[in-house]
Design brief:
It contains 15 helices and twelve strands. By secondary structure, the chain is an alpha/beta fold.
């Protein structure tokens, strides 16, 4: 089915190979709320554990409900395989841990979600993985920070708060020459941005946001594009070219294509090593909830984007708003990147600078319709003051680098009628 359909509106409902439940013929995807699975016989069990065949072993590693979600998101992104995990943070961590070990480094964009910055600067550092930060304004900055221990490049397609669209192809091309994959967090731009089409090797999402879309369930996912050559430069990618003692010396870059017939070593290793050893699986119930959101994400994104553009136009007319931040409000090459890499809209995230911390706090407290929550991508419109919340772990220099000014307020524009959204913003500014 996946190969026959290209439109995201259809993929959200029919992507992957699920048509109906083979046991019951249920059209809705069942919630397989189980920890374990009965093995056919001793030989089958041995084959499953030895990766001689693939199937259900334990829900920490895979689950039939999660499997449907994985295949549909992979189809939505144009990838070959996906691995669902318990949160977007887990997906970010797994993406790095799946290529780098103690003593290695990755080069990441400076334009990142605050939680990712903390993960990269602190937690991964304590694990022995260095993250070097490059300003994506000039893609060559990634090249400048690369050495023989660099295992991956990392960026966000549309990072907040700057909302500067990442130079996907430019950085991917630099990486390909050196055997370095580009990993893109596409959380803020599902449907409207397709990083794999522009050279990214891996895409991840916080499913919690737009794909789930209703603020009910946390989840993350990693999509393997299936195009990166993991064995071309064995020294560059040692985790895929040296024997893994935890699987009887399996060499992932060599053996996975033989086992599966597909170039999905990244996805397979993430599942059978990281999920097995570190956990962080997505629960079947949350997978079911996220599937409901996935079915309408393409339609919602159209409304999100249309509403956001109307809000931007309104904010630009307000004297109390010192600056409006939106992908198309940048100048020069950065503005062109938004046009180049985003199709069908520029996302629902809108930033505005009200000049001071006090003004930002007052605006937040005066909102009646918009919710004050630490989330994006909800069907509801949301607002938050990043300097005191999502980016509060950063020092002054880091806040400046991230584009978080004292008066910066981030809006995540929902799918309500735009007149109602604007009316609430207007009264909050006037109060």
């Amino acid at each position: 089915m996946t190969k026959k359909i290209k439109h995201p509106e259809t993929i959200g409902l029919h992507g992957g190979d699920y048509r109906s439940d083979p046991a019951t013929t249920s059209v809705a995807v069942p919630i397989y709320q189980t920890t374990s699975y009965q093995f056919k016989d001793a030989k089958t069990a041995a084959n499953l554990f030895g990766l001689k065949e693939f199937g259900n072993i334990y829900t920490r590693i895979n689950n039939p409900t999660c499997d449907v979600l994985e295949k549909r998101v992979a189809a939505l992104e144009g990838g070959m395989a996906a691995v669902a995990v318990g949160s977007g943070q887990a997906a970010s961590a797994f993406c790095v841990q799946n290529v780098a070990q103690a003593g290695d480094n990755i080069v990441s964009s400076t334009d990142l979600y605050g939680g990712t910055v903390n993960l990269f600067k602190n937690t991964l550092r304590m694990q022995g993985i260095e993250v070097r930060f490059a300003d994506p304004t000039d893609p060559k900055n990634f090249e400048k920070l690369t050495d023989e221990k660099t295992r991956a490049y990392y960026g966000e397609s549309c990072p907040n708060p700057y909302l500067r669209v990442f130079p996907i192809k430019e950085v991917a091309d630099i990486g390909k020459k050196r055997g370095i994959p580009l990993i893109i967090d596409n959380t803020a731009a599902p449907v409207i941005c397709k990083p794999l089409e522009h050279g990214a090797a891996v895409v991840m999402h916080s499913l919690t946001k737009y794909i789930a879309g209703h603020g009910t369930s946390i989840g993350g996912i990693i999509v393997d594009g299936g195009t990166f050559d993991w064995v071309k430069d064995p020294k560059r990618q040692p985790l895929y070219n040296t024997p893994d003692p935890s699987y009887n010396g399996a060499i992932w870059g060599r053996d996975v294509p033989k086992m599966t017939g597909a170039n999905v070593a990244f996805a397979v290793r993430a599942r059978v090593v990281l999920l097995r050893d570190l956990g962080a699986p997505l629960s079947p119930f949350n997978a079911f909830q996220i599937i409901q959101g996935l079915e309408t994400v393409a339609l919602r994104m159209k409304q999100h984007c249309a509403n956001a553009e109307k809000v931007v136009k309104f904010l630009e007319s307000q004297k109390k708003v010192k600056n409006v931040i939106y992908p198309t409000n940048h100048q020069g090459e950065i503005r062109e990147r938004a046009k180049r890499y985003m199709n069908g809209g520029y996302g629902s995230l809108v930033g505005m600078d009200l000049g001071s911390k006090e003004a930002g706090a007052k605006f937040i407290d005066n909102l009646k319709l918009l919710y004050h929550v630490a989330n994006i991508g909800d069907a509801r419109s949301l607002a938050i003051h990043p300097a005191s919340t999502t980016h509060s772990q950063l020092n002054e220099k880091q806040l400046q680098e991230a584009g978080v000014t004292p008066g910066y307020v981030r809006l995540s524009i929902g799918i309500e009628h735009p007149d109602d959204i604007i009316a609430d913003i207007e009264q909050a500014l006037a109060a």
